[in-house]
Amino acid sequence: MPAIPYKHSATTDVAWDAGENEKRLKADDKAAYRDMYAWVDPKADPTTKSAYKFPHHMVSGDGKVGAANTRACSAVIAALNGGRGGANIPGADRKAVYNAVAHHLRDAGKDVPELKSDAEIDQAEQAARQALEGLKPSKIERRLLCLDLGVKKRSRRDAIDGDPDPDPNAPSVIHGHAAVFEEPTDLGYFTETVKRGAFTRTLEEDDIRCLFNHDSNHVLARNMASTLQLREDFRGLYFEAEPPDTQFARDLMTSIERGDISGCSIGFSVRGYNIRRGDDGSIFRDLTDLKLFDVSPVTYPAYESTDVNVRSLEEIVAEFRHGPDNPAPSEEAWRQAFEHRRRLLQLAE
């Protein structure tokens, strides 16, 4: 039968590396394969590893299959419930595979997650995709960073050409990176990455300000007035803003120099993005084209350990879930989607 029945064995909770354990299996050892995995494709060659799925046993250096790994068993259940790319096996086999790995978890005294129905998995998947597709380009989003914000004198040649030699007679400028490229950020429900080139179009076309705390009453600089200069460099979106000779601007620069204000934020809308799913079932949003409205030194950057602050998942969902192009699913569908994500995070830990 495709689902390989449970066989009593010792259990272990050590770190799990499926690839390394699979490498230790001896070629063409069909008996070892059936001890190691939880499912075999009845249409494939049973003497090849590619015919098998859901490894969950430790394998010794000499190829002997040993204790069932409880972390691997939990990962199998996560896949059966739609995570880690999904199970991709006939629905009739899901219950039998679940029973086998669940038995090992009970042997080890571990809690066993419930097996979701196909309908529940489909509903959670639909809710997740609606949450992402609902982030419409017209909506303004913000991201906060704590990244090299400072005050310096402009260089002799140009404010933004990287010349380290400052001009003592030049005006002071606020500078820093307002966004970074190719650094995935876990937003709780999906992982977001700003791709290189995401600001190329907006820097050529759009009227962009530098504000304090995103407040349009506190304008520090503007690219159309040549007092704000922005460019994409190897790290991300770099900016230099020449503030006006006003009291609030002077006070702000003093606060930045003292380290009282160290965060920076961008206000933007999304014009181009890609949604993809990772091998472990995680959802990713890659931002490829952003319309930038402002860069802003900010007083209260949060989540300083990760240099990023975003609105909570609940706030994003509440804002983007409704509309003529994005009808709201039922409350139960959202609850199941949240629970699905929570369990995946618990398993990853």
Description:
With 349 residues, the chain is of the alpha+beta class. The protein has three domains: 11-115, no CATH class; 116-134 and 329-349, no CATH class; 136-312, no CATH class. It is built from nine helices and 16 strands. It has helices at 18-23, 30-36, 70-80, 91-107, 118-133, 200-205, 247-258, 313-320, 331-348; strands spanning 11-12, 39-40, 52-53, 57-59, 65-69, 141-145, 150-153, 172-180, 185-186, 191-194, 209-212, 215-222, 228-232, 236-241, 263-277, 283-298. The strands form four sheets. Strands 6, 9, 10, 11, 12, 15 and 16 form a seven-stranded mixed beta sheet that branches. The radius of gyration is 26 Å and the shape is elongated. The two termini are 33 Å apart. The relative contact order is 0.14.
Compact summary:
The chain has 349 residues and is of the alpha+beta class.
- Helical segment tally? 9
Helicity range: 25-40%
Number of strands: 16
Instruction: Sum up the overall morphology in one term.
Output: elongated
Strand content: 25-35%
Structural class: alpha+beta
Query: Which ranges are low-confidence, i.e. pLDDT below 50, for 5 or more consecutive residues?
Result: 302-330
Order of helices and strands: EHHEEEEHHHEEEEEHEEEEHEEHH
Number of domains: 3
Mean pLDDT: 79
Distance between the termini: 33 Å
Major sheet details: 7 strands, mixed
